[in-house]
Structure formats: structure tokens, C-alpha cells
Design a protein that fits this description.
The protein has ten helices and eleven strands. By secondary structure, the chain is an alpha/beta fold. The strands form three sheets. Strands 3, 4, 5, 6, 9, 10 and 11 form a seven-stranded mixed β-sheet that branches. It has a two-stranded antiparallel ribbon with strand order 1-2. Strands 7-8 form a two-stranded parallel ribbon. The longest helix is centred in the N-terminal third of the chain and has 26 residues. The N and C termini lie far apart (54 Å). Keywords: DNA-binding, Plasmid, Transcription, Transcription regulation.
Length: 299
């Protein structure tokens, strides 16, 4: 083990390398790190000497990473992220407390998960949470995460996926449209509609289920996420198709209403992903989540 430590670089050198690669400029990297340009250059030279290969080359007044530098940068970014989360976790809780690292899609996290965490903490008061909102399928082996909520199909390399709930969307109205009479699906065919970029065919599929032909399926406003779609519907920009569990509070306050209770089940669902061989570390939280949802049956 001691002989292998000669390959360990100074963490400050890695920070300097990452910053220089990101800026493509040693002077700007120095400004961010409160170092002189010569100090940045010296650390990069020392790092290149340790590696035995050049990491940068100069092109038109800029420094760009070499092929070795680009490959090294990906590894360094992962290492720095791991180091950052390690320090965050070790300092988050006091003696005897555990840190549970959870990742979930942003809207699911803010509108469903976080408002319910106090219920879990009531029975597990010695837990501290580190909540992330990455949207990609990442490698548990290089990310300090105990459990991830995954929307899509039950596929996550290096992880075990457990079904959590299906996604059922319903038409929703808000703002000036709250008092508009909607008798059937045909009334919505000509009405203003809100589309979500990540679910471009929701309205087409919903009208197909309602056996109504939609002449202009893409007409209307488009927003990238459910969180933006919710706000657009609340302001009365149009009718939206939204999962009921994401708008429970707005429905209870009367800010939104469901003019036609005709649900559509999408072809995807929410799953709980836990790293292979480490499922026990978050088993109690996984079981709590499954017990907390009221919309589990596959639609």
C-alpha cells in the first residue's frame, strides 16, 4: 500500500488542473483559485512530471487539454466529486448519526419526496439526508449515493430496481380556466394546451384514449419540466396533463382542478434503484417510500 501512494497527487494540484481545463486559461484559473498565473503553471508542470505526459497544449492564446488531459479530467472530476461528498457526509451528522444520500428527479424530489421526509425522520431521528437531483443513470460505484429514484424502465447497470409507482396523468386547469365548463374531451380539443417537452405525445395519447381526433396535436405552449408546466397551468396559459400526486397541494387549495377525471397511464414508471450488494444500507428508507405512495398499482 505504501508503494502505491507515490501515485497519489496533491489534491490542490488536481483542483488547479480541473480549473485550468475548465477555463482553458491559466490566468483565469489563478483568479478563481487566488493563485498567480506562474503558480498555476508550476502546479501543472509538477503534475505533468508526475504523470510523465503533457496535459495541455497551447493553441491561439488558449490552453486546451491533450488526449491524455481529457481522459485524466474525467477521472479527476469524479475524484473531486467523491472527495467533496465524503467531507460533506462525514461532517453532516454528529456521533451516532448516519447520512443517507438520495437522488431523485427534481420535480419528484421537491413536490413529493421532500415534503414527506419529516414523516420518515419521526421514526428515524438519527438520520441526515443528502438529497441530489441528477437526472441521468450514473455509476453507483463512483458516486456516493445510497438510493436513487429512477423514472423510466427498470434498467440501471450495477443496481437493483424495485417498482415504486406508475405515472397517471390527468387534465388540469388553473387561473382563468378554473371556471370554464368542460363537458367532455371534445371541449378540450380546441382549448389552449400546455405541452411538456420531455413528454411530447401526452396530449395525443390522451385524446386517442378518449377517442377524439386532435387536428393540431402540437399547438400550444411548451415547457421542459413538470414544475414549469404546473406554474403555466396555474397562471391559466392552458390546460395541462399532470400527475395527480405532484399537484396535491394545489388541488387542496383550489388553485388547480381536474375538469375531466380521465387518467392516462404512461409507458414508464418510477423505480427505486439501490446499488448491488448495498441494498441493506437503505432498505428501511426504500420500504418507507413504498408504504408512503398511494398510487402504486401498475395502471
Amino acid at each position: 500500500m505504501i508503494s502505491q501512494r507515490r501515485y497519489l497527487p496533491d489534491m490542490r494540484m488536481l483542483l488547479t488542473f480541473e480549473c485550468a481545463a475548465r477555463h482553458g486559461n491559466f490566468t483565469r484559473a489563478g483568479e478563481e483559485l487566488a493563485l498567480t498565473q506562474s503558480a498555476v503553471s508550476r502546479q501543472i508542470r509538477d503534475l505533468e512530471a508526475q504523470i510523465g505526459k503533457p496535459l495541455f497544449e497551447r493553441v491561439r492564446g488558449r490552453v486546451i487539454t491533450t488526449q491524455t488531459g481529457r481522459a485524466f479530467l474525467a477521472e479527476v472530476e469524479t475524484l473531486l466529486d467523491m472527495a467533496n461528498s465524503t467531507m460533506r457526509h462525514v461532517t453532516a451528522g454528529s456521533q451516532g448519526e448516519r447520512v443517507l444520500a438520495i437522488n431523485a428527479p427534481p420535480t419528484f424530489a421537491s413536490r413529493w419526496l421532500v415534503p414527506r421526509l419529516s414523516g420518515y425522520l419521526a421514526h428515524h431521528p438519527h438520520t441526515r439526508f443528502d438529497i441530489g437531483t441528477r437526472r441521468d443513470v450514473f455509476d453507483f460505484a463512483t458516486t456516493q449515493c445510497d438510493l436513487a429514484i429512477h423514472f423510466g424502465q427498470p434498467i440501471w447497470p450495477g443496481a437493483v430496481c424495485t417498482y415504486l409507482c406508475s405515472e397517471l396523468v390527468v387534465p388540469v386547469a388553473g387561473g382563468a380556466l378554473l371556471d370554464t365548463m368542460v363537458r367532455d374531451a371534445r371541449d378540450l380539443a380546441e382549448a389552449p394546451k400546455i405541452h411538456q417537452t420531455e413528454r411530447p405525445h401526452l396530449w395525443s395519447d390522451w385524446f386517442k384514449r378518449a377517442e377524439v381526433e386532435l387536428q393540431a396535436p402540437n399547438e400550444g405552449h411548451w415547457f421542459e419540466q413538470f414544475s414549469l408546466t404546473i406554474e403555466a397551468v396555474k397562471s391559466g396559459l392552458g390546460y395541462g396533463l399532470l400527475p395527480r400526486y405532484l399537484i396535491e397541494s394545489e388541488l387542496a387549495r383550489g388553485e388547480l382542478k381536474i375538469p375531466l377525471d380521465i387518467p392516462l397511464s404512461t409507458d414508464k414508471a418510477y423505480y427505486i434503484a439501490t446499488p448491488e450488494g448495498r441494498a441493506d444500507e437503505a432498505r428501511d428508507f426504500r420500504d418507507w417510500m413504498i408504504g408512503a405512495v398511494s398510487f402504486r398499482p401498475l395502471a
